[in-house]
């Protein structure tokens, strides 16, 4: 079926986590008949197992809804899903660039949160028509009027014609569809121009290769067409073009304004990057669409196999994950303590946790993970600037002129009574106060510039616990700044354990060094000999603890000679050893490598 361009609407949904984006999307699908009630048992837009378990949307998807509007005309509404997490801002911005409008979904009981705001500003930057939707009006605590005021005052959008809905009961769903048709402009673009299609997402299929999700901006994209990825420069031939309804449905071509997917035997995610422009290799567009950028990792950690003979398997697993996640970066590294492994770079902490979990779950690997680190810039006396993502590679202090670390501009939203707690936490974490604005009588938006390394260091957990879960946080990269940073070495049994080294601000070095050795003493099991644990800056030891010796004779616990019982105990002991790494003569558990993140600031 050919669709007229003025009968197309491309939109996305912007919402804070848990404000009801997936439930609402399901309702829209259900209402337009894309999905029957029976198929609704699972929320369809989040379709990765991990996503569902964690209740977040990692990857965006696109789905076409056919809607017979009140004006008697049939419209094709393309819903482009956006990830809601701060790690994936660039993907959000590409999906917004593929739309003319956005539904801004705000929980009627909770009001605007930090991530809502960040994404709304992105949408405003992209000139999208924004339709405010106040959801969950069925809740007894719903206060749509307050939320309406927040939207007007904080964002500056008119919310008088906000749609009030309950994705739970289905109330207001038709109003949303009508608002999409009436308020969001149809796409523009000339189907006779040379092809320009924006890739806003991709995923890897083991049979078809990389599947690209795109929006045609100009021209047409047809099956059999030779295409070129303009930033990467690679050429392919299109095997399949289609749309999701939500089941994949093949079509011959997609024209300016339409949204769909293609398969072109692309073997590697690196060749099909989010943000790149697809053009016709035989009739190339003069220039790519604006805004392509190579995403850079923000957080790094070391991944090592517990059993050194699993190194090859770990490398193969990373190679495979890289095929469908171009933003994953890794290179081989060697640790004196942990042997052969990889230094991996991630978009953020969530991305890091997802990759670790997939390596363990899908590839059955048993890993030792070192504490995450940011990338530092070190200016040396030789006049060079080195970038360092592994603390143990920091040059000796004598050859350092200065060290710079990444900063982020953070926005925190919180009920008024927690302002003090948020400020206290931000100050402790070396935050630089920027601004504070009242969102309403009872809610406040606070802005701080913070070192990214301090955010990694359990900032989010602390924020949640000190505000009883009411605070929301969002941040964006804000460049490098010079700081007084030193490298802390940890010596276990007189030997420096490189994987435990970390970089810390001078003013906090004693406190963190002391707290870490105390923590390590409680984590490292007693060995047959006494094990000293020391924290040192350069050659100066600043803290010391000792793990006392004990003969660990588990069998002594069995009375008599019950052999099955003995075996059971030995099995159990083996199990317990799984996440232990033999380092020199000492066994170190996985927790020890993460201990630096867990040492209580609360101990101050
Ligand atoms: N009472 C009520 N609950 C709702 C409504 N809409 C969604 N919920 C519930 O709110 C919770 C979060 O909804 P989701 O749709 O998963 O939220 P989301 O915004 O997609 O969350 P992420 O995918 O994590 O971004 C779920 O428990 C829903 O059942 C509503 O209109 N009324």
UniProtKB/TrEMBL annotation:
Subcellular location as annotated: Cell membrane
- Keywords on this record? Cell membrane, Elongation factor, GTP-binding, Hydrolase, Membrane, Nucleotide-binding, Protein biosynthesis
Xref: Gene3D superfamilies: 3.30.70.240, Elongation factor 4, C-terminal domain, Elongation Factor G (Translational Gtpase), domain 3, P-loop containing nucleotide triphosphate hydrolases, Translation factors
Molecular function (Gene Ontology), one example: translation elongation factor activity
> Which annotated residues bind GTP?
18-23, 135-138
Which of the seven top EC classes does this enzyme belong to?
hydrolase
**Which NCBIfam families does UniProt cross-reference here?**
lepA (TIGR01393), small_GTP (TIGR00231)
UniProt family annotation: Belongs to the TRAFAC class translation factor GTPase superfamily. Classic translation factor GTPase family. LepA subfamily.
Which HAMAP family does the UniProt record give? LepA (MF_00071)
Report what the protein is called: Elongation factor 4
Source species: Sporotomaculum syntrophicum
């Amino acid at each position: 079926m050919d669709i007229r361009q003025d009968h197309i609407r491309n939109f996305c949904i912007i919402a804070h986590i848990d404000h009801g984006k997936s439930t609402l999307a399901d309702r829209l699908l259900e209402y337009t008949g894309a999905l029957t009630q029976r198929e609704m048992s699972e929320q369809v837009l989040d379709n990765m197992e991990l996503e569902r378990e964690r209740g977040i949307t990692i990857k965006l998807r696109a789905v076409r809804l056919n809607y017979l509007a009140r004006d008697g005309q049939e419209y094709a509404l393309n819903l482009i899903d956006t990830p809601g997490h701060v790690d994936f801002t660039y993907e959000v911005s590409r999906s917004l660039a593929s739309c003319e409008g956005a539904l801004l979904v705000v929980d009627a009981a909770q009001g605007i949160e930090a991530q809502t705001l960040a994404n709304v500003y992105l949408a405003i930057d992209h000139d999208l028509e924004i339709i405010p939707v106040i959801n969950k009006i069925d809740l007894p605590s719903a206060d749509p009027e307050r939320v309406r005021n927040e939207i007007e005052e904080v964002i500056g959008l008119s919310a008088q014609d906000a749609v009030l809905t309950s994705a739970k009961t289905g109330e207001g769903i038709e109003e949303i569809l009508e608002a999409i048709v009436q308020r969001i402009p149809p796409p523009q673009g000339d189907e006779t121009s040379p092809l320009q299609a924006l890739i806003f997402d991709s995923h890897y299929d083991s049979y078809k290769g990389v599947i690209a999700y795109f929006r045609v901006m100009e021209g047409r994209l047809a099956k059999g067409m030779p295409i070129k990825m303009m930033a990467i420069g690679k050429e392919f031939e299109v095997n399949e073009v289609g749309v999701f309804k939500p089941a994949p449905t093949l079509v011959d071509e997609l024209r300016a304004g339409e949204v769909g997917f293609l398969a072109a035997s692309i073997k590697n995610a690196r060749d099909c990057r989010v943000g790149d422009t697809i053009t016709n290799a035989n009739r190339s567009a003069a220039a790519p669409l604006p805004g392509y950028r190579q995403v850079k990792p923000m957080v790094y950690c070391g991944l090592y196999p517990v059993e050194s003979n699993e190194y090859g398997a770990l490398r193969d697993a990373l190679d495979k994950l890289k095929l469908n996640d171009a933003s994953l970066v890794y290179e081989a590294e060697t640790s004196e303590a942990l042997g052969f492994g990889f230094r991996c770079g991630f978009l953020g902490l969530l991305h890091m946790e997802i990759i670790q979990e997939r390596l363990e779950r899908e590839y059955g690997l048993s890993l030792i993970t070192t504490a995450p680190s940011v990338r530092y810039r070190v200016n040396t006396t030789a006049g060079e600037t080195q970038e360092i993502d592994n603390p143990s590679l920091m040059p000796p202090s004598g050859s350092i002129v200065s060290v710079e670390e990444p900063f982020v501009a953070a926005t925190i939203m919180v009920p008024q009574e927690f302002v003090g707690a948020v400020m206290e936490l931000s100050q402790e974490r070396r935050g630089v106060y920027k601004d504070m604005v009242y969102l309403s009588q009872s809610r406040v938006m606070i802005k701080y510039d913070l070192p990214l390394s301090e955010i990694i260091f359990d900032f989010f957990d602390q924020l949640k616990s000190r505000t009883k879960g009411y605070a929301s946080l969002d941040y964006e990269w804000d460049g490098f700044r010079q700081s007084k940073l030193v490298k802390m070495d940890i010596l276990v049994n007189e030997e420096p354990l490189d994987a435990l080294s970390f970089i810390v601000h001078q003013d906090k070095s004693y406190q963190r060094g002391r707290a870490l050795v105390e923590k390590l003493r409680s984590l490292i099991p007693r060995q047959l000999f006494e094990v000293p644990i020391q924290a040192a800056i350069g050659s100066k030891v600043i803290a010391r603890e000792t793990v006392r010796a004990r003969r660990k004779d588990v069998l002594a616990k069995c009375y008599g000679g019950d052999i099955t019982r003995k075996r059971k105990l030995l099995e159990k002991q083996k199990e317990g050893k799984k996440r232990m790494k033999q380092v020199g003569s000492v066994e170190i558990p996985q927790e020890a490598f993460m201990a630096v993140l867990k040492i209580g600031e609360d101990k101050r």
